[in-house]
């Protein structure tokens, strides 16, 4: 009985993965990241940074499967959200993670927009939120090779 309660407590305490969209990608992390950057730039968004988590881990002699985060945005979409709640600037610009799982599979993941701003004073009906979600979905699909 104690095991059941401990399992239930762990499930309640664990963060839900339902807030994230994740899809398998074709090729390597570098291949998927190149497709992602091309899709983002092709849509007229600005790439602000690329964070190479795998290289960071290697720089301190730690192992981590290849993992890269692309940070990008468009002020036409982000500004109305920050006008609604300046704290949205902690969540923006948008991000997509491309990573390897250690078993040879590459994945593309992002947080769903409605969850990203859920704790902020941002109206769920704000038109740009749907555009952000559509952009994230399209970019992730392009990165995956679909």
Summarize the helices and strands and which ones pair or pack.
Elements: H1 2-13, E1 20-25, H2 29-42, E2 46-52, H3 53-59, E3 67-73, H4 75-84, E4 94-100, E5 106-111, H5 113-116, H6 127-144
Antiparallel strand pairs: 1-5, 2-3, 3-4, 4-5
Helix pairs in contact: 2-6, 4-6
What this model shows, in words?
The protein is globular and about 40 Å long. It is built from 6 helices and 5 strands; from the N terminus they run αβαβαβαββαα. The chain starts with a helix and ends with a helix. By secondary structure, it is of the alpha+beta class. Helix 2 (29-42) packs across helix 6 and helix 4 packs across helix 6 (127-144). Residues 1-18 form the signal peptide. Keywords: Signal. This is DUF302 domain-containing protein. It comes from Palleronia pontilimi.
What order do the SSEs take from the amino end to the carboxyl end, as H and E?
A: HEHEHEHEEHH
CATH superfamily: TT1751-like domain
State the CATH architecture.
2-Layer Sandwich
Question: What fraction of the residues are assigned to beta strands by DSSP?
Answer: 15-25%
Radius of gyration of CA atoms, rounded to a whole number: 17 Å
Strand order, sheet with most strands: 1-5-4-3-2
């Amino acid at each position: 009985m104690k095991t059941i309660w401990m399992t239930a407590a762990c499930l309640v305490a664990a963060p839900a993965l339902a807030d994230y969209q994740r899809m398998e990608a074709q090729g390597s992390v570098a291949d998927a990241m190149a497709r992602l950057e091309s899709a983002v730039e092709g849509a007229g968004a600005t790439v602000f940074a690329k964070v190479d988590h795998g290289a960071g881990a290697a720089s301190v002699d730690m192992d981590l499967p290849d993992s890269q985060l692309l940070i990008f945005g468009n002020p036409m979409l982000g500004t109305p959200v920050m006008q609604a709640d300046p704290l949205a600037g902690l969540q923006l610009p948008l991000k997509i993670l491309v990573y390897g799982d250690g078993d040879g599979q590459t994945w593309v993941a992002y947080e769903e927009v409605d969850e990203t701003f859920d704790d902020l004073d941002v109206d769920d009906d704000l038109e740009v939120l749907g555009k952000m979600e559509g952009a994230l979905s399209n970019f992730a699909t392009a990165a995956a090779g679909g």
